[in-house]
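At this stage, I put together a protein sequence along with its fold in token form, as given directly below:
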Amino acid sequence: IDEKPIADLNLYDLRDSIGIVPQDAFLFSDTIKNNIRFGKEDASEEEVIDSAKKAVVHDNIAAFTMQYETILGERGITLSGGQKQRVSIARAIIKEPEILLLDDCLSAVDTETEEAILNNLAEVAKGRTTIIVSHRVSSAKNADRIIILDEGRIIQQGSHNQLVNTDGYYKSLYLKQLSEKELT
């Protein structure tokens, strides 16, 4: 990581350098602000709001009566799947990790919101390694390198342009998703 052998890093530093956003986001029974701040406990109010804006969840939060002080979980409100994913993305963004791993974390958002988040993540990703796991071509198309796996084996790899111009899984998925987008 950053030219340093992983074996030379202590486990705490290694974990601290990685931000992970899973598909099934876990949020605490606490305020939205504290759920986002979990990524960086000393984050300012401005940093919390900025990361929420980048994750395209700020407007949803601002609509709640208590806004960022809204309690989530058993004694509070329940967020939609897409809102949970976006709060989890904000938590990872605020951490400013060297490595950002997004594991199918846009699966519960609509394509318009996904596009807005991906545009914001393009800025966030500058200067860091970002790994996006997705079944949507739209989430991967701007990556420097796309790797297609089938049962744990690499079956294709390249840029979006290379892969859409080569017969294979990626091209067929791209054409299928393109036609579905045009029909909706």
Summary: The chain has a mean pLDDT of 89.
